[in-house]
């Protein structure tokens, strides 16, 4: 009986790992897909991402009562994510066709964002077995897993917010030139 339970547990762990790897691969694939720019989709994406960013910053400021410097880490992550969003807009391939404006996000930047999520999971796993050294002069080694999670999440949200703003502005400019 115990051997059967161990085999079942091992199967569950392997299946979970497979699902995680598949989800990462699908996330990368979706992040690099060619899309048609539609105004209502871009507007909805902008509003929803902005609302998510606002709620996230409220959550991070509230979390700073329990996790020291968490809001500072969230702001640093948001600043880095905003810069990456601007880079993403610059690296995006824009194509004007008869059907409208199409865009393809940068593969390298999508890979970087996906790897940031993977690195956060690996760091959390490593951190589980290695306690924090709060006396370390390196802020990343002294940071808690919650602080770095907030920084990575803020970076991702702000990247998508800046990218959504850029797509919306690009669509607006495309519509103006098409009508003129």
Topology (elements, then pairings):
Elements: H1 2-31, E1 35-36, H2 39-63, H3 70-91, E2 93-97, E3 100-104, H4 107-129, H5 139-142, H6 145-179
Antiparallel strand pairs: 1-3, 2-3
Helix pairs in contact: 1-4, 2-3, 2-6, 3-6, 4-6
Overall pLDDT level: 85
- Radius of gyration, CA atoms, in whole angstroms: 20 Å
Number of strands: 3
Order of helices and strands: HEHHEEHHH
How many structural domains can be distinguished in the coordinates? 2
**Inertia-based shape:** globular
Number of helices in the DSSP assignment: 6
Write out the strand line-up for the largest beta sheet, numbering strands in chain order.
Answer: 1-3-2
Helix-strand category = mainly alpha
The biggest sheet, with number of strands, parallel, antiparallel or mixed sense and barrel status, is: 3 strands, antiparallel
Helix content: over 70%
What is the first-to-last residue Cα distance? 76 Å
Ranges where pLDDT stays below 50 over 5 or more residues in a row are none
Strand content: 5-15%
Tell me what the structure shows.
With 180 residues, the protein is mainly alpha-helical. It has two domains: 1-31; 35-179, no CATH class. 77% of the residues lie in helices and 7% in strands. The protein is built from six helices and three strands, in the order H-E-H-H-E-E-H-H-H. It has helices spanning 2-31, 39-63, 70-91, 107-129, 139-142, 145-179; strands at residues 35-36, 93-97, 100-104. A three-stranded antiparallel beta sheet has the order 1-3-2, with no helix packed on it. Strand 2 and strand 3 form a beta hairpin.
